[in-house]
Design a protein that fits this description.
The protein is α/β, with parallel strands linked by helices. The chain contains seven helices and seven strands; from the N terminus they run H-E-H-E-H-E-H-E-H-E-H-H-E-E. Helix 3 links the parallel strand 2 and strand 3. The N and C termini lie far apart (37 Å). The mean pLDDT is 94.
Length: 185
Amino acid sequence: MINVGDEKGKILDDAIRRVRPRRLLELGTYCGYSALRMVSVMPNDARLYSIELSPVNAQIAHRIWDYAGVGDRATVIVGHLGDDGSTLDQLRTTHGFTPGGLDFVFIDHDKAAYLPDLQHILDQNWLHRGSIVVADNVKFPGAPHYQAYLRQQEGKSWRTTEHKTHLEYQSVITDLVLESEYLGN
């Protein structure tokens, strides 16, 4: 299963309850499970935007959210942040993303894109001091460049907590979820 699962889902739930974000961005919708979890614990006036590469997966997620009665609080956008800029432009122009306006990011998509996509978000100045970025599967299958960047920036631009977990739905293969607070430039 390529979704966040229960063990890691609790880490995500707890972070959202603690931060109480109003604008959330998810990178990697798949079938919408993690988004459904986030919507269920985020404040009532919050809004989640989820980026999905596959139009089929996006459609499935949208149908699941509508069925669950939360389709009015979550938006799926087909694309990726590393495209020709059209997804970033759509987030700005259609969905009102502005500098300092993004409170929470959940990253759970192509592991090689974790660091480049975080850099796209930083280049747009969408984060503010105190914004939280949670990244799944940092150890397995692994996002070593992302992890190295956050370690190098510890105490400078970021403060990161490493949550030792297991790969979804089993207890043998260990994994790592990083929860990082943006400290600003």
